[in-house]
Amino acid sequence: MDLVTSELAQIHQGAAQIRDGEVSTYLPQLAAADPELFGLAVVSMAGNVYRAGDAAAPFTIQSVSKPFVFALTLAELGLDTVLRNVGAEPSGEAFNAISLEVGTGRPDNPMVNAGAIVTSSLVPGDREEKWGRIRHTLSAFAGRTLEMDEDVCATERAGGDRNRALAYLMRSAGSLVSDADDAVEVYFRQCSLVVDCVDLAVMAATLGNGGVNPCTGVQVVPGLVAEHVLTVMATCGMYDYAGEWMLRVGFPAKSGISGCLTASSPAQLGLGAYSPRLDHRGNAVRPVAAARELSQRFDLHLMHDL
Ligand code: GLN
I need a surface site. Which of 215, 233, 260, 286 has the fewest CB within 10 A? Predict the structure, then answer.
């Protein structure tokens, strides 16, 4: 067994002991997930893939879609245009908070729901064109064609009043400039894309590799876009745990309510992790613990040894 695989197996074994947290009840499909599932995957800049545990278990990507759709809008429109409609400040609030910047009406950042709905709305085209571009881009990040879970999307839609309310609020505040229903529909679909840990590791590695997918060699977004996305992930990706996350782990990440996590150590590796139990902030407990251990074992903290 190679060094990375054996380290990853030890990290997995350690974090698997943790049984804290609760499986999300946000959707019935998430509530039904086996709480013991636990997968880890690491992808190097050379495109080597390392796995531990349930790395092939499928789950919906949920909020981990947000940085990659942000990347798409940055690539299409440029930073200045995107920042007119969505901010880049950590919110210090829950992911679905109803709070907009005084004066501009902008949501705090693209990693919370309100900001992600704006980012999705900024993707050029009508509803189906937006969706096509989003699915194509996230698939290019993952290096394979991603499929949507229709049942999850239907329940997102049926129970999506809070996200719809956010969209309408932002339309009245002027930060959402497209049709509100189109924006949330596209957002529900992107949250319902099915991935596994390897996909999330490849996606993170692509960001950390200057926008070039290390497995396919495809330049998915320009290097500057990857740099901008990683920066916003570093400050805002873990919701109101973003500060302590940077302190303890020290590289950009994004969590999702299904229990998934993607984390990118620039020029080093991408991490994908999944285990359904969440802490009170909505971050998956075992994946956070595993990322912390990985960072320590491989000295990945960005401020290490300066
Ligand atoms: N689909 C979820 C929502 O809109 C995503 C939230 C999350 O993953 N934190 O609320």
Answer: 215
